[in-house]
Design a protein that fits this description.
The complex is a heterodimer of chains A (258) and B (327). Chain A is mainly alpha-helical and 258 residues long. Chain A contains eleven helices and no strands. Chain B has 327 residues and is of the alpha/beta class. Classes of the chains: A mainly alpha (258), B alpha/beta (327).
Chain lengths: 258, 327
């Protein structure tokens, strides 16, 4: 794990020095603006608006970072040939991949945590003191982070065998399809053959179900999130990301570098 | 720095390559195959400096990348220090300088070396000490806190050298270490290679510059079109015999004309005359009689380009002959 940690900490350093965390400034401005505006125009639904807006922003900004930087984790290193000297060291290729993955997840965790602080500040501006139900926002943020970790794994897998452009496209497509996985599973179309329905149902189980991680509606209205759901989502994300990363390692282990 | 050579190691080859071939898919849907290396077999002995010579695209970098497991062979095997190249832990004893090295440009040289040193299991204090020593060795001590994006090509090359030898490897593999360097940079690289040899390390480096190979190598291997054409000491291998002599001289005053002057070409105040080796002493006598100042006497050798062009032409001629026979 020494090698994995070395790559991960360097990836984190790269993200910080490449100013990835500058998005926090945008988020802070958005939340401050929203808090001031919401305080003036909404009556009684300030909490709901701020939480919904904050969680949506955390999710969208995170998805952008996860997809674009996730794809670049491997492809940029191959394109710039920075990994030539590294892979000639006593480092396994899977260690390199896992380190890059860990580094970006660490970056996303820091980014998400900082945005969560911003969200709480905005929430405090429209409503103080905060009550117990407000702490469910943290659970929602945690589930968003799990979702982002899964997206990074997918982005890395695609970038191991195709061009960055296609990898972004594939990751985005899987994400969108994954958001609607539940609909695909329960779809009742009268004009489709039973075999086609079976096929779609099969596909829906293969796709990552990103709606599992969405508790925004409940949290925005002060409702709790069952602990069982948190455990299930955590196990699901770990298992799914593990399988995707194993596939990425398999592909990358025999990849010829040009 | 410790000396690495010992009698037992001298007997075993540091690098052994057996029937190594590499094919790349190309064309529409990657259905065609292009062979860039064909049944390469050779050995590099422990403690020697081995030059891998060939024109661009000959297969030098392909061979080195195969050794460094950056690409994978279509067939054949290779061992370094008696261990398969698939054995990752073997790389603990190998240093590698990639062609046209490019590193993480957001790091400083000290940070980069520290980062790479972590993969060799060095403790923090050891890493610090070793990084400082390497930076001093390659002359980057004063630039160690500057980000690599601000480095010149020569400075990057020196950083690349530092990372290649940071962990005190027994075998050092250098891919075109002098490419793109100015004369001063090339001189520095030559000095480092000679120092590595003095320390008893095995050095394999690729180049297409014959003078570098002649100056540094115990043996060279020549590769053209993905095939190894031979291995041996630089002189015997390339088979370069002097094709003549060149004398560079200046005349004091106008003086009388003499036969050599007719053959000479004048550049500025200097004359340059090319003549067969057998006529050298006669020509020197003429110059002495004319009171000329001799600046240099040099053997004329074919350039590496000519040497390779001959090999390539021979290759093409052979291929055409095979085609005619087949028809």
């Amino acid at each position: 794990m020494r090698n994995v940690w070395a790559v991960a900490s360097n990836t984190f350093r790269e993200a910080v020095r490449d100013r990835v965390l500058y998005n926090l400034v945008f988020f802070a401005l958005l939340m401050m603006g929203a808090a001031i505006l919401v305080g003036q125009i909404s009556i009684g639904i300030e909490q709901s608006v701020i939480v919904s807006l904050g969680l949506t922003a955390i999710s969208i900004i995170g998805i952008f970072i996860a997809v674009f930087i996730g794809v670049g984790l491997v492809s940029k290193e191959m394109e710039k040939r920075t990994l030539y000297a590294l892979l000639a060291k006593p480092v396994q290729r899977w260690e390199f991949l896992l380190g890059k993955y860990g580094g970006l997840v660490m970056t996303l965790a820091l980014n998400t945590a900082a945005m969560a602080v911003g969200l709480y500040v905005a929430l405090w501006m429209v409503k103080h003191p905060l009550d117990n139900s407000d702490w469910y926002v943290l659970v929602a943020v945690y589930l968003i982070l799990l979702k982002l970790a899964l997206i990074v794994a997918l982005a890395m897998l695609f970038s191991c065998f195709t061009t960055p452009f296609l990898a972004i496209l594939f990751t985005a497509a899987i994400y969108i399809a994954g958001v609607f996985a539940e609909e695909l599973r329960t779809m009742q179309a009268v004009d489709l053959a039973p075999s086609t329905m079976k096929f779609f149902r099969g596909v829906s189980y293969l796709l990552p179900n990103f709606e599992n991680f969405n508790v925004m509606g409940a949290v925005a209205h002060g409702r709790g999130v069952p602990a069982s759901l948190v455990w299930q989502d955590t196990s699901y994300a770990i298992l799914y990301a593990g399988i995707v990363l194993a596939a990425a390692a398999k592909v990358f282990s025999r990849r010829n570098l040009k | 720095m410790r000396r690495l050579s010992n009698n037992r190691n001298m007997l075993t080859p540091a690098i052994e390559i057996e029937n190594l071939s590499k094919e790349y898919p190309h064309g529409f849907l990657h259905l065609k195959r292009k062979r860039s290396l064909e049944n390469l077999s050779m050995q590099v002995q422990t403690g020697e400096v081995f030059g891998f010579l060939g024109p661009n695209g000959a297969g030098k970098s392909t061979t080195i990348k195969l050794l460094m497991r950056l690409i994978f062979p279509t067939s054949g095997t290779a061992r370094i220090l008696g261990r398969s190249i698939e054995d990752v832990s073997m790389h603990q004893q190998v240093g590698y300088l990639p062609e046209q090295p490019y590193f993480y440009d957001y790091l400083t040289a000290a940070e980069l070396l520290n980062y790479f040193a972590r993969f060799h299991g060095l403790k923090a204090a050891d890493r610090q000490e070793r990084v400082q020593r390497m930076l001093k060795k390659v002359g980057l001590e004063t630039a160690k806190k500057i980000q690599l994006r601000k480095y010149s090509k020569g400075m990057l090359q020196r950083t690349a050298f530092a990372q290649a030898i940071l962990h005190d490897p027994q075998v050092v593999v250098l891919d075109e270490p002098m490419s793109g360097l100015d004369p001063l940079g090339r001189r520095e690289v030559r000095d480092i290679i000679l120092e590595l040899k003095k320390e008893g390390r095995t050095v394999l480096f690729s180049t297409h510059i014959l003078s570098d190979a002649e100056m540094l190598c115990d043996r060279v291997g020549v590769i053209v079109g993905g095939k190894l054409r031979g291995v041996g000491a630089p002189g015997e291998m390339v088979g370069i015999e002097a094709q003549g002599m060149e004398i560079l001289f200046e005349l004091n005053g106008t003086g009388n004309a003499f036969p050599l002057l007719d053959k000479a070409t004048k550049t500025g105040e200097r004359y340059r005359a090319q003549l067969p080796e057998a006529d050298l002493y006669e020509a020197l006598a003429e110059l002495k009689a004319a009171g000329a100042r001799i600046l240099s006497v040099t053997q004329l050798k074919p350039t590496l380009e000519e040497f390779f062009m001959n090999l390539v032409d021979a290759d093409r001629a052979q291929a055409n002959a095979v085609e005619v026979n087949a028809q």
